[in-house]
Amino acid sequence: RYRQVQRVMCELMERRSRLLSGALPKDELRQLKREVTRSIDCGNKILALDLVVRDEDENILDPDRTSVTSLFQAHRKAAQTLAQHMQEETSPQQSVLSCSARHAASPSHSLYLCVRNFVCHIGEEAQLLMALYDPDQQRSVSENYVIRWASTGVPQDLELLNNLKVIFTDLGSEDLERERLFLVCQIIRVGRMDLRQPHSRRLSTGLRRPLGISGQRAQ
Questions:
Q1: Among candidate residues 89, 119, 138, the one where a domain is terminated
Q2: Is the residue at 216 inside a domain?
């Protein structure tokens, strides 16, 4: 029983770190909430405690505002779901994963990035979009870090000069197990449709046009 409770606590700490990261979209946050409540219910089952009845949003049902019939149906459904989950957890394939392995796979890894300078003769404003990219899946695995660069060759916000830093958080075991992971920088030119056009044609200013791209293997 101690090993079972230890495994559940490791799962809760792992998911708590993801909640505290503050970088999850609403759909992943909702799914993570379900996983947290499921771990809590499993821990209560192992310790022979009462089963907590919840609604569809994983909130505890108020017995003073819920009918006896609804409470009974919700309790029966929760008991069936919990029993199915406990059976999956005790399968031979799942039992091979120890708590130490789960803790080692905790998605609390981060990547620190510091941009020293950007040298590219454009003559107009530019935007640098930096993100982690998986070339095998051909998709980005993080949000973009945006740097706005002035036409004078310095950041538009001079307070960020020599202080362009970002941390890519919430990198889990799946990200570390990727065969290849690149840090990709997209260069977007902001200005005229054609650099040969005069500045007097204001109808064609402020346009975002792709200019270049660069990549560095991060893993």
A1: 89
A2: no
**Backbone φ and ψ of 30, nearest 5°:** -65, -40
For 180, other C-beta atoms within 10 Å of its C-beta total: 12
What is the mean pLDDT of the segment spanning 114-124?
A: 83
Give the number of domains in the chain: 2
Residue 11 is given by DSSP the state: H
- The SS3 call for residue 46 is helix
Q: Does residue 207 lie in a domain region?
A: no
Residues near 103 by Cβ (< 8 Å), separated by ≥ 6? 10, 13, 14
Q: How many CB atoms lie within 10 A of CB 14?
A: 19
- With the C-alpha atoms ordered 18, 24, 26, 28, is the resulting torsion angle positive or negative? negative
For tokens 């803790």, what's the residue? 103
Q: CB-hemisphere CA count at 13 Å for 191?
A: 22
Range of the domain at 19: 1-89
Look at the chain and count its residues. Answer: 219
**Over the stretch 193-213, which tens digit does the pLDDT of each residue have?**
776 666 555 556 678 888 888
| Assigned domain for 119 exists | yes
CA atoms of 106 and 18, how far apart (whole Å): 9
Q: 69-111 pLDDT, tens per residue? A: 888 888 888 888 888 877 776 655 554 444 444 444 444 577 8
- Cβ atoms of 128 and 185 within 8 Å: the answer is yes
